[in-house]
Amino acid sequence: MSGIVERLLQLALEKGALTYGDYTLTSGKKSSYYFDGRLLSLDPEGAHLIAQALLPMLRHADVEAIGGPTLGADPIVAAVALLSHLEGQPVPAFIVRKEAKSHGTGRSVEGHLPPGGRVAIVDDTCTTGGSLLHAISAAEESGCRVVKVVAVLDRCEGGAEELRRRGYQFTALMEATPEGTIKVVVNP
Prior knowledge:
alpha/beta
């Protein structure tokens, strides 16, 4: 798997998904680098590589569905669902809204969330873990058991530790130093 993630890192640089400069993150923190996971997950090769890296982890965890917070997880879960279908062992996908719809069904989760099922929650980036925790909460409120949490990039700013402290099995494909040096992490 390390070859897949190494190519993903190379692609991040080629596609401009990893850039250096002066950035303000969603959390309000300043950063010397920015990782835009959507530039990877919306790229055909990037989507395929992410799905190839995630699917063995999901199979190992015996996951019945994959979901995550909109917008970062949308292309990731779609890519994984498609690849799983092509491999003959479908893993359905779901998306967690930032807030429940105020019309129609009023759902906060869209897609295929198996009642009482074992699910994985994914996102493109983990900083504080807030988006992942929001998606975890929605899946658990729907009666599912979150057995795996994965980010494409862990910024190593406390989110992974908080997820693990709460008892979740967290994995990242890549990790970053505060200066933006990215290393491949291979640990299903």
